[in-house]
From TrEMBL:
Keywords of this entry: Cobalamin, Cobalt, Isomerase
One Pfam family here: Met_asp_mut_E
Keyword Isomerase tagged: yes
This enzyme's EC code(s): 5.4.99.1
Gene Ontology terms for molecular function: methylaspartate mutase activity
Keyword Isomerase: yes
InterPro entries according to UniProt: Cbl-dep_enz_cat, Glu_mut_E, Glu_mut_E_C_dom_sf
The protein, known as: Methylaspartate mutase subunit E
């Protein structure tokens, strides 16, 4: 694996920020400069890669597998996972495929790769090989390059997806897609506000416009690839409407670049009715806004994510969250569920623990088959409430950009019209605060400057005040803080045993 970085163009070609598709000639220059940044980029050839993709059987192509799952009403399983060396990653992916019965097999990149520190990633590979254990928290996909990725794809019998975890995705997307991965996770808004401090919203959007334009380029060569919006990985709680607002905006940005197969992710709230309502509202709202922009051919499967907040260290409690997460996804009608393991609170799981989390989830999906909540008054109430919140904000974002999604998004974050709880990014006001209500739903305690309708906020306040009164605590920000850590508490505190 090479270890030198090519010199960069100090003045890469750019246009004023816009949601318009990147012109072909400009994109060709952008790709040339991007691929020159690390020696493995020289192996990337879209025509050759497209020909390789066409040799993959349907059961190893994620777009085809997802379309079939939706048609059959199935909920697929997909874990996370990545190790430092090719041998370790090969073992992991085979274990997840065979022992875990994963429907979609992941490759999570390491933190150095996510931050484009490829020299440090190379050192991590070498140290891992020397010590015989992974010294990185993921797979350094760029360092290994196209042929190593194809070896990973050859070792499994399921479709594979790159879990990028980055606001700087351009080189990992090129290597991953050329290497035979048929899915790529990440988006310009969600990852920028979840993972970065200094990266601007504009930079994040531009970076993923590149990835989306790349997926569209493969489409032009007759290869459909899966792009996916990642939800939020802030480790806190996110109200469904805020997650869906971001889904809609990231989706519209991707559609403008030519993407026609785009998945949406929603972190679980851990309330059966609210999670089912969120999945349905997300699916319907995304298609509603696509139609407004004239798109009628974009496929938008919804993925449900196992609980994204703090996890309990007790493995029995963690196992309950895993099983319940499978039920939430199945009952909500999600197309897939991204799983976790009982090691979540401890660190990176072993391949075996990861596989066990998959099987637990799969069993929960099986026993929940056919259960739906549509028509239940509480469910319809939540769907309507979520839609009202989403439309109020997204419509304002579009107004602020005069119909341009990219421009409107940047302006909306600057004004606080679009906001994310506890975001580390300096360009996000993070004035909005969520908390769990008396029934366990995630509500909005303080909307900040987001234009949520007054009567909607009255509903949130009433439900949160009931919790404060029941628990005899002040109605203030501590409701929000406590909600973040609540489920990681020992069971003896969450639900103490009755005593005589």
């Amino acid at each position: 694996m090479p270890g030198t970085v090519a010199s960069l163009d100090p003045n890469p070609p750019t246009l004023p920020l816009s949601d318009a598709a990147i012109p072909g000639d400009l994109f060709a220059r952008m790709r040339r400069d991007n691929l020159a940044r690390w020696p493995t980029g020289a192996r990337v050839d879209v025509e050759e890669a497209a020909a390789f993709h066409k040799t993959l059987p349907a059961h190893k192509r994620l777009p085809a597998v997802l379309r079939r799952a939706v048609a059959e009403g199935r909920c697929l399983t997909q874990p996370r996972g990545g190790f430092a060396t090719l041998a370790m990653q090969t073992e992991l992916m085979r274990t997840l495929d065979r022992d875990g019965m994963a429907d979609i097999v992941p490759t999570t990149t390491d933190s150095y790769t996510r931050n484009e520190q490829f020299v440090q990633a190379q050192r991590g590979v070498e140290e891992s090989e020397r010590l015989g254990r992974s010294m990185l928290n993921g797979f350094p996909l760029v360092n290994y390059g196209v042929d190593a990725c194809r070896a990973l794809i050859a070792g499994i019998e399921k479709p594979a997806i790159v879990l990028s975890g980055t606001a700087m995705p351009k080189l990992t997307a090129e290597i991953g897609y050329a290497g035979g991965y048929t899915g790529y996770l990440g988006s310009g808004i969600a990852y920028t506000v979840s993972y970065t401090k200094e990266t601007t919203i504009e930079e994040g959007i531009r970076n993923y416009q590149y990835v989306d334009r790349l997926a569209a380029l493969y489409q032009e060569h007759g290869v459909e690839l899966h792009r996916r919006q990642p939800g939020f990985l802030t480790g806190t709680i996110i109200p469904p409407s805020i997650a869906i607002m971001t889904c809609v905006l990231d989706l519209l940005l991707a559609a403008r670049q030519g993407v026609r197969h785009y998945g949406l992710e929603l972190g679980q709230c851990l309330h059966l009715v609210q999670d089912a309502a969120a999945i349905r509202a997300c699916r319907e709202l995304c298609q509603e806004y696509l139609a407004r922009f004239g798109y009628t051919d974009v496929f938008t499967p919804v993925t449900s994510l196992h609980w994204m907040g703090a996890w309990p260290a007790d493995e029995a409690q963690a196992a309950a969250l895993i099983g319940y997460g499978g039920t939430l996804a199945a009952v909500g009608g999600a197309s897939s569920v991204t799983t976790k393991s009982t090691h979540e609170a401890i660190g990176i799981p072993t391949p075996q623990a990861n596989a066990e989390g998959l099987r637990t989830t799969r069993m929960a999906i099986h026993v929940s088959y056919g259960v739906r909540l549509d028509g239940l008054p509480a469910h319809e109430f939540e769907v309507d409430l979520i839609k009202r919140e989403v439309r109020a904000v997204v419509d304002r974002v579009l107004e602020m950009g005069d119909g341009d999604v990219a421009v409107g998004t940047v302006r909306a974050f600057a004004a606080g019209v679009m906001d994310i709880p506890w975001s580390p990014n300096r360009q996000v006001k993070s004035r909005v605060l969520p908390a769990r209500d008396a029934d366990g739903c995630i509500r909005i305690l303080d909307a900040g400057d987001m234009p949520i309708p007054r009567d909607v906020m009255e509903i949130h306040e009433e439900k949160l005040r009931r919790r404060a009164e029941r628990e005899r605590v002040p109605f203030d920000h501590q409701l929000a803080v406590g909600s973040v850590y609540e489920l990681s508490e020992p069971l003896s505190r969450l639900m103490p045993a009755m005593v005589a």
